[in-house]
Amino acid sequence: MHIFDYSFLENIILPTNISALLQSLWNMQAFWARTGGQKTDPEILRQDLTKDRALLPVEESLAFSAYSSVRKAGVDPLLAASCLTLDLLCLSSPSLALAHAQSMLRQEGFTLCGRLSLEDTIARYPAYFQRETALSKQRWEENENDYLIYIAAFLSLLYLSARKLLPLPAPEAFTLKEPAPEKAPRHKNAKPAAPRRNTKRAMVEEMVRSSAQPVSKAEICAALPQVSPTTVEAALGAMVKSGAARRIGPARTARYIGN
Hints:
This protein is mainly α.
């Protein structure tokens, strides 16, 4: 029997792509609120959710309890909702699982979620979301599934849906830039610093190398929305040229896998 426990989120060190997605999503919510985005009375939502949860099967109620527990511990609701959604996907229909997640997030202050068409976005990237969901569900009954896989996929789903609703010139408009680190004084005899590695390219390379199945450019863009399509294409081309990856299929439908 599956044990519903999301407490691992309380002390987790998040991968770079998930941290960037979280930051971008909350920036999108702030932008939505600043520009007069539709607001919903959280008390009405709370009443609706309480009424709905009273009718839930026991296992689904346990999943909601696990969600509430980590929220009281201060875990970001987007992370907690990702885990909740995966568990509900294992227990009920996709449409019901997504509806519960959206209602929960709206109650938590992510009101933008109420206007997102998640199922339409899944239909645009079916292979990516089907594969990531299937990987996330593996060994779920034995409590050995990997929630992080689905967290990245669910946050990507929210991000891509929000980008369609809030069309701005570039994703960077929603991304906070970190201040540049202070430079230490250079000794006159010091050797020149090694060139800095393009971390966004490294993220693309890591995704290709770690994927058990060939991935397409569109799927990489969906999973790493903070990386521009141009950078993804350049990274894939460099990997193929260096022999680090191979391309499968013609250019328009090409998929890539690490060597």
